[in-house]
Give the backbone structure.
Amino acid sequence: MNLLLIIHIFITLALIGVILLQRAESGGLGLGGGGNSASLFTARGSANLLTRATAVLATIFIGNCLLMTIIASHQTHRENSLIEGPAAPIASQH
């Protein structure tokens, strides 16, 4: 689990870096006017290396999240919560 957490941190940092390297075109996705939103869906726009890297890193990020969730749900915990633990006997002071 610790190894997956370390990998998750590296994926997160790489994803942040790739997103920050992308330049905003016309306010992002054509919002705010002044840009042609159809240019987002051209072959040149979709073939951009940073766009593909973002998609791949995002997919790996979500897959790693799901894997860590599955592993965490199957781990046995030796510690019980206060609610689930046996109640300690209360000594009466008569």
Residues 26-35 have pLDDT under 50 and may be disordered. The two ends are 51 Å apart (CA to CA). The helical segments are 2-21, 43-46, 49-74. The first helix runs from residue 2 to 21.
